Give the backbone structure.
Amino acid sequence: MTQFKKSMEDILKKCPPGYQVSNLMGFGTPVPVTHFSNYDDGLAYFIADGQVCVYEGDKIHGMMFGPADAAGELEEEEEDEA
């Protein structure tokens, strides 16, 4: 039996342009971005602070989807509950 393994490349190829992404993982520390732009020839394009950022797709180990504020809101809610 062959086990199918999804890669970040598979996910990047299916991500629609303009999709909200808050952080990329795989570079030592999270890299803040705001939106996915496109994926082409092994390169992933993202938007951060109004600029286009290009990363090697095989260097990305993870992505956080959704606006960056959502992560901050979750932390605030958890602090309020404590």
About this structure: The chain is about 25% helix and 35% strand. The longest strand covers residues 35-40.
